[in-house]
Amino acid sequence: MVSNSAKEVFIQGLTCDGKTFRPSDWAERLAGVMSAFRPGGARPGSHLSYSPWCIPTTVHGVKCVIVHPDLRVHEPMAWDFVMNFARDNNLQVAEACLLPDAAAPKG
Predict the structure, then answer these.
(1) pLDDT in tens, 52-81
(2) pTM exceeding 0.90
(3) CA atoms of 92 and 33, how far apart (whole Å)
(4) Number of domains in the chain
């Protein structure tokens, strides 16, 4: 269960028993389906880029989709879709906040 105060939700490409989720492009596919759900709604060509509310990435070698809580506020059915995808596929889900890369030490 994801709390209502989550900063961001990371759907990880690992099942709860630690196996890598397949197909290997699952994160890009899920984010592609969610591309229309964005601030201001879908616009012509919006399917050509990912929504800022649902972004595929890799964290420590694990494919992930980062889901922003604004998706829950503005598109509750889309939020339910991605959370149900994670649950139905037994994927690990973590609440976190993606931090920008730390500045390189000066030296």
Answers:
(1) 999 999 999 999 999 999 999 999 999 999
(2) no
(3) 20
(4) 1
The strand pair at 62-67 and 54-59 is best described as antiparallel
The identity of residue 80, as a single letter, is D
DSSP string covering the chain, please?
---TT-SEEEEEEEETTSPBPSSTTHHHHHHHHTTT-STT---TTGGGS--TTEEEEEETTEEEEEE-THHHHH-HHHHHHHHHHHHHTTEEEEEE-PPPPPPPPP-
CATH code of the domain containing 87: 3.30.70.2340
Closest by Cα among 77, 26, 31, 78 to 54: 31
Angstrom CA distances, 73 to 53, 70, 83, stand at 11, 5, 14
Distance between alpha carbon 57 and the CA centroid of its chain, in Å?
A: 8
Instruction: Spell out, as residue ranges, where the chain has pLDDT lower than 70.
Output: 1-6, 42, 45-47, 97-107
Domain that includes residue 88, residue range = 8-96
Beta bridge partners of 12: 64
Task: Indicate the residue type of 59.
Answer: V
